[in-house]
Design brief:
mainly alpha; 3-stranded antiparallel beta sheet; 48 helices; 14 strands; elongated
């Protein structure tokens, strides 16, 4: 504080001694003298070696700029800094940013210095420290980067000034802010902080502070009137009132409160008067118009919104045919709500000018003002007065001025830009692509760190930019939406907005060099600038501290970022960032960008139950409401997060009552979707085919619940029907034919046979045919195909063994129906003699083939009946294990066939007379019998007579019986050990697939009854008398099932307001304390070093002022005095 006071006093004394305000002498200037290199080399020595005092340098600011050495609150004009001063200021600021680990760290440094200098200012900032630090950096960086462009700087400061209308900015507070910022830069930069940089930053900060005071004094009242009256007119009174009242925090609240009360009393008296007052001719016209309208059309609906009232008044005033008014009306809400942001207002007017350029009729902008004022007077009759007239006229005059400046230009520029792009050849396009990035990297070398993709990717970006410049002329509204989405994606890429300006400049320079058409150049520059404005605005609005933490992929950074969020909006900040009509999910972006550490921390934070005395806060509903397809997304992109999500859906009490522990499973969103239909979560988990996930307690609970209450009944109905068909099939193909073979055909047996086979063909074959046709058509419509052997496409439904078996069974039944012996016997004497007999000479030709097919059909029926095993998880697990180890058996059979074929061909080539081994086919059959131990013992005595055959048989026996069989045993043993751990999971996966397929046949009525029985709307108890959250199911677990020793609910005292953040949680306290201690040591070291150098510099200057003679003597004297000190 002493150093700061000394500097200010010295500066004022120097200024008072000067007769003209054109030069300022800074006694602490570290110029570019001959001793700079020596000072930089000794910078790290913490002042152990003495430094020579720098020479003072006079900075010529000019008369128009020198006045900003103090805060100018009565004027607001463009600031024309000398180019060298502006460059030094920007260079010094950039050095400060580079000296910090990140921009957030630099912001924290300024924030801390500001509050250390003036703790009383903390009451002005109600936003969290981390958020405020980021806003500091964004605002200061945008101002300083434009200090060499007076027009752009004025616009930016004006925009920021409108955002600071709620703060009472005064000259003393501006001085405190300025000195705190300059002090930080001086401590951080040391000798690198030149006098020009300091004076330039001082002038800029004074200019900004004075502009804030001027804007607040001149425009705050108008902005408040506009927002409040617009909120009333557009039926957003609550939101608008809060927004308007939040604009201004009055220092003299009591005085203004009294003035408001007096105005309210006067207005009430005026309203009570019978005569019309306060509206002038417009009010008279409105009153007569309303009276005439009400008299003529008593049944007409009275307009209640601004849009309805505007269209009504436009029709009454004779502007019904002016279609351009509807185009302006669509953008008018964005224009009014962003009146406090000049940048955004200019952007909206630019877009509106493009929209109006597509209109072919005449446009008379003053007509819109007349209709607008008439509509507002109708909708805001009590509050309307002359101040409202002035405010709304002021708004429309600004909008009209910006629109008129663009009238007629977009049409000409669009044609010129199109003509230029069409005229480009392939070589010229390649030149444009390469030259753009070449110039961009020269203007902004830091851009190379963000454009690290291949050249073809960079060329694609250039092509996309050219396309955007054309499309924004043709479809401005659609492009705004598309650019907003693109900007939100760039938020995740963490691209600095400072790179957009040099990128646009590079593109414009390249285009300027390639065309002589001024309209094409201007049109391209204007369109690309508008595109850049929209992208920058979207990035700035979407760059929350949560997104910045996601980019670092640090759990600690994320917790710090979200800790400042209000408890009522904590889930929203993690799940949604909205800019205009577009939104992005930080959680999904963390998954897409691979920041799974942050994604896991988000899930854990969302699914942690927090509570104060009044409310419970649990992000389950917000998570599934924002991302209904969450399970599907995690299965596809982040399977490691699935257990984290499922664990977060369970709450277990740490207390046991009566030998049981309360456990709440919040499975509402896994059972039903937002339309109260069956959720696809179980289907996604079944398709994921992960046995460990499907065995998670949450999945087991809700899957068994759906199975037991709904799917089991439908499954049994379908399977019992199939079982009846199997019984009929066995009866008609295996039992009745055997009886007829024993005692001949009988009429009653023939009738039973005909009945069974008719039921099979009609009840089973046609049912399967309909099911297969429906699934085939569904897959063809959705183009759901899978490729077998990478080349043969088949419908996706055939991946299921059950559906594939049904298709094969359908083919078998069709073949049986075609070969049915009954059809062949119709009309024969045997058929007339014995009614419905299937035995006749005509049927004998197909009898053998028919019997073979029917045998295959019976086997397939029994195989498809194995679905019954899912009734028991133990039996189903055994079946799944059998299916898994069959792969090893298949490998063994392949090896066995190979060995049999090899040895059979070898033995057949030998000179031998054995009947069983004559030919390859006989040899293979004999070797198979030997391998299966079915070869007759008498055959071995003949083999002994052929030594070489005997040797081959012995080798075959060793390979098969000793090697292959023992290898098969080992493989089966190992495969069983691997599969055993997951056999329950595979069984549950099978049941899950059956549940999903079965629920398609459940009626909506049964489904609604089932949902009603779950009572998800009722809140569950946590402990006795503690009514908690709804959306779950409570069960009682044995105390040793899942021991829990800590309370899973984080409870906090203090304020219960939803707008307050949660108190800081003590996690990793040692690490945090060490980090804070380290920062404190670094800050203290820098402060001490800066003060020591300041003291040396002061002593040197004092010694130098008292000495006479050459510069060397002065330096010697100052060095001596410093050493003496």
């Amino acid at each position: 504080k002493g150093l700061r006071t000394h500097r200010v006093c010295r500066l004022h004394s120097t200024m008072s001694e000067e007769h003209e305000a054109t030069e300022i002498v800074d006694g602490e200037d570290h110029g570019t003298g001959t001793g700079d290199n020596t000072e930089e080399e000794d910078l790290g020595d913490l002042g152990t070696e003495e430094e020579a005092p720098p020479e003072e340098e006079a900075v010529d600011l000019g008369a128009s700029v020198a006045k900003y050495q103090a805060v100018q609150e009565m004027i607001f004009e463009e600031l024309h800094l000398p180019p060298d001063v502006a460059a030094e200021a920007q260079d010094g600021w950039q050095k400060f940013l580079n000296s910090s680990s990140s921009r957030e760290a630099a912001g924290e440094t300024i924030y801390a210095a500001l509050f250390d200098a003036a703790p009383s200012l903390q009451s002005l900032f109600k936003t969290a420290r981390s958020v405020m630090a980021m806003r500091f950096m964004n605002g200061l960086n945008s101002i300083i980067s434009l200090c060499n462009d007076p027009a752009a700087l004025k616009t930016q400061v004006e925009s920021l000034g409108f955002q600071h209308l709620d703060l009472e900015v005064t000259p003393p507070r501006v001085d405190i802010f300025r000195e705190a910022i300059l002090e930080v830069l001086e401590l951080e930069l040391g000798p690198r902080y030149t006098s020009k940089a300091r004076i330039g930053l001082q002038v800029v900060l004074n200019y900004v502070g004075g502009a804030y005071i001027y804007i607040r004094r001149e425009y705050a009242g108008r902005i408040r009137i506009l927002l409040k009256s617009w909120a009333t007119a557009s039926n957003k009174a609550d939101e608008g009132t809060l927004q308007a009242e939040g604009l201004i925090e009055h220092q003299h609240a009591d005085k203004e409160k009294g003035e408001d009360e007096e105005k309210a009393e006067d207005k009430a008296k005026e309203d009570a008067k019978p005569a019309t007052t306060g509206g002038g001719p417009g009010n008279s016209a409105r009153s007569s118009m309303e009276q005439n309208g009400l008299k003529g059309q008593k049944g007409m609906k009275v307009p209640t919104t601004f849009n309805e009232m505007f269209l009504f008044n436009a029709a009454v005033m004779g502007f019904a045919e002016s279609g351009w008014m509807s185009l302006v009306l669509e953008q008018f809400d964005n224009i009014v709500t962003n009146v406090a942001s000049s940048y955004r207002l200019q952007e909206e007017c630019d877009v509106l000018s493009l929209v109006l350029s597509r209109y072919t009729g005449p446009i008379n902008l003053p007509e819109f003002k007349a209709v607008t004022l008439a509509s507002l007077r109708s909708l805001v009759p009590k509050e309307w007065d002359s101040d409202h007239e002035v405010a709304w006229n002021w708004l429309w005059e600004n909008v009209e001025r910006m629109l008129k400046s663009m009238m007629g230009k977009p049409q000409v520029q669009e044609k010129a830009v199109e003509r230029f792009i069409v005229s480009l050849g392939e070589d010229e396009i390649n030149h444009l692509r390469r030259e753009l990035f070449k110039r961009f990297f020269q203007l902004a070398p830091a851009g190379q760190d963000y454009f690290k993709q291949s050249t073809t990717r960079l060329f694609f970006i250039v092509d996309k930019i050219i396309e955007l410049t054309v499309e924004i002329y043709k479809n401005p509204k659609g492009m705004v939406t598309e650019l907003s989405a693109l900007g939100l994606r760039h938020v995740g890429y963490a691209i600095p907005t400072e790179l957009f300006s040099p990128f646009v400049s590079s593109a414009v320079d390249v285009v300027r060099a390639m065309t002589n058409d001024e309209n094409a150049e201007v049109g391209f520059r204007w369109a690309l600038t508008l595109v850049a404005k929209i992208l920058v605005r979207t990035i700035l609005e979407g760059s929350t501290i949560v997104m910045k933490a996601v980019n670092t992929n640090s759990e600690k950074a994320l917790k710090k970022a979200i800790s400042v969020a209000p408890r009522g909006r904590r889930s929203t900040d993690l799940l949604n960032i909205t800019v205009g009509s577009q939104s992005i999910s930080p959680f999904y972006w963390s998954i897409e960008s691979g920041s799974l550490i942050c994604a896991k921390a988000m899930v854990q934070d969302l699914l942690t139950i927090r509570a104060d005395r009044d409310n419970y806060y649990y992000g389950c509903d917000a998570l599934f409401g924002r991302h209904p397809e969450l399970i599907h997304r995690l299965c596809a992109d982040a399977p490691s997060l699935l257990p984290v999500v499922l664990d977060g859906l369970v709450w277990r009490s740490r207390l046991t009552v009566g030998g049981y522990r309360r456990t709440n499973y919040y499975v509402k969103h896994l059972v039903q979707d937002q339309e109260d239909n069956f959720s696809q979560a179980l289907e996604w988990l079944a398709d994921f085919r992960e046995p460990k996930i499907i065995c998670h307690p949450v999945v087991v609970l809700f899957a068994d619940m759906v199975w037991g209450h709904l799917a089991l009944y439908s499954f049994l109905v379908g399977r019992i029907y199939f079982l009846v068909m199997l019984c009929l099939f066995v009866t008609s193909q295996a039992i009745i034919p055997r009886l007829q073979a024993e005692h001949g055909p009988r009429i009653e047996e023939n009738i039973a046979l005909l009945t069974c086979r008719s039921l099979i063909y009609l009840g089973s074959m046609l049912k399967i045919f309909y099911s297969q046709l429906r699934l085939l058509v569904s897959d063809c419509k959705t183009r759901s195909f899978v490729r077998i052997m990478y080349c043969i496409p088949v419908p996706a439904y055939l991946v299921s063994f059950q559906e594939t078996g049904n298709l094969v069974l359908l083919i078998i039944l069709i073949c049986m129906c075609a070969l049915e012996p009954l059809w062949y016997c119709i009309g024969t004497p045997e058929f007339e003699q014995t009614t419905f007999t299937p035995v006749c000479p005509a049927s004998m030709k197909t009898q053998e083939v028919y019997a073979l097919i029917s045998g295959l059909g019976i086997l397939l029926y029994w195989a498809l009946l194995m679905d019954f095993t899912i009734l028991s998880m133990r039996i189903s697990s055994f079946v799944m294990v059998c299916g898994r180890v069959l792969q090893e058996v298949g490998l063994f059979l392949m090896a066995l066939i190979f060995a049999i074929l090899a040895f059979a061909t070898a033995i057949s080539a030998l000179e031998q007379q054995l009947e069983h081994f004559q030919g390859v086919e006989n040899g293979m059959l004999s070797l198979l019998q030997i391998a299966l131990r079915m070869y007759p013992t008498s055959g071995f005595k003949y083999i002994k007579e052929e030594p070489w055959v005997l040797v081959a048989i012995c080798m075959f026996t060793i390979v098969v019986a000793i090697f292959f069989l023992n290898l098969l045993i080992a493989q089966l043993n190992q495969a069983y050990q691997v599969v055993y751990e997951d056999m329950q999971g595979f069984a549950r996966l099978n049941r899950a697939s059956v549940i999903v397929a079965t629920l398609l046949d459940v009626s909506p009525k049964r489904w609604k009854r089932f949902l009603a029985s779950l009572r998800f709307d009722e809140r569950l108890e946590f402990n006795e008398g503690d009514i908690g959250l709804a959306g779950g199911i409570q069960i009682l677990e044995p105390p040793n099932a899942n021991p829990t020793t800590v309370d899973l609910i984080k409870r906090f005292g203090g304020s219960t307001s939803p707008t307050m953040p949660w108190p800081e949680e003590e996690e990793d306290g040692d690490d945090d304390r060490f980090d804070r201690l380290e920062k404190l040591i670094v800050r203290t070291t820098k402060s001490v070093t800066g003060k020591r150098k300041k003291g040396q510099g002061t002593a040197s200057s004092m010694g130098g002022s008292g000495a006479t003679g050459s510069q060397s003597k002065s330096q010697t004297s100052s060095t001596g005095s410093s050493e003496g000190g």
